[in-house]
Amino acid sequence: MSTEKNLNNLATAAAELVLRELNEIETRDIFGGSGQGWVKVGPITPVPPVIPEQMK
Amino acid sequence: MHIEALYVITKLVERCNLNCTYCYYYTPDNASVFDRAPVMGMDTLDQLLEYIGTAVKDVPIPQVVFGFHGGEPTLAKAGRVQEFCSKARAKLESSVDVKFVVQTNGVHLSEDWLRLIKQERMGVGISVDGTKDEHDRFRVDHRGRGSYDRVCATLKKLRPIAEDGHIKLTALAVMSQEFRGVEFYKHVVDDLGFLALKPLFPDRTCEVQLPRDELERLGSELCELFDYWLLHGSRTVEVVLFTSIVRALLTEKLSDKEGAERITLGFALLSDGSIRIQDDYMVARDWFWSQRDLNVGTSRFLDYIEQPHHIELAQSTLRAPEACRGCRFANSCRGGEVAHRYTTTETFKNKSVYCDALLMLHSHIERRLDLGERQIAQSDKRVEIEVA
Fold this sequence. Notes:
heterodimer; A: alpha+beta; 2 helices; 2 strands; B: alpha/beta; TIM Barrel; 13 helices; 11 strands; globular
């Protein structure tokens, strides 16, 4: 039981770490340096940048 | 190649008030240190500023970090260092971000040095090997006396400056054979109040293979420490080794293509004006001592980065060695620290001498990140990333 609880705590802490670090990571190279993109995490899949209407 | 920063290890004082048992600097190979001036002169520091001023014109460098180093740099008069910092800002800050850090043994910091550190918002690295017993076993003065109590007295003065947000205080520790990760962490964070830790692998090369059980024990200690940090301190405490692996693994997942070739360059300036590859590579003995003789007053930074030794280092830093081909962590680990791959015949083409421990740690962190990602997937949480 305590092992399961420990694993849950680790998963929660790891999830926080992943989210925090993704915000820190320089993403310029991932999307090619322009626009604004979304990344859905878990599993991590880059989604093409969303281009605002006025920029089209 | 994109240069992120230039780290200038400025050996302000080439003597030390400690006589650590594992010191890499005061060795027979480096006996010439005693032929050089104990303290770097102001004329050499002025030449350094001219040298860097030309360097940032010749090569795109966004940030220059002057790392005051030694010997023990705080044996220099703080007023002289203050003068250098002011001159450096005046000369360089219009074209480049300038930062100062000091690496000290923490045995004694004068009031003038404390004021200087606060005023210049210097990053401060202090060597602490663990508890009093652990620390005093290795970090002794010239009379064989341990330095732990004196380091604690210094920390008492530095902590308020760090807590006020003026400086970042980092504990540097060499992981000895007796290294106990969690105990070390608890002591340094809970008892001594550090919020940044830099555990260091001892200076070793592949010339001598380490016993597998020793590497596995070290790997286990680091994995256990990672879990403890994750649960107890990852929001507030930085463990440089862990953060760099986490970022490397996440970045690799995010990107299909290889990242840009980003690199932090460094060199050491000795008290006589000699320009040398940074100390990390002294352990690669034959290679290190065959580098070009360069001086800050008679050469340019281009001479330094165009010498074969530096080119080899840059290439070895940016890419994992051939020996790592087939390893799934080849891109995130890149073969560990370059100096730890060295042999006389293959130079830096080997795997790290710490490969077994690094493999355990990378695998462990990857599993923890997968656990976190699954947790996030369950909550379908999205994170917005700003792309500049």
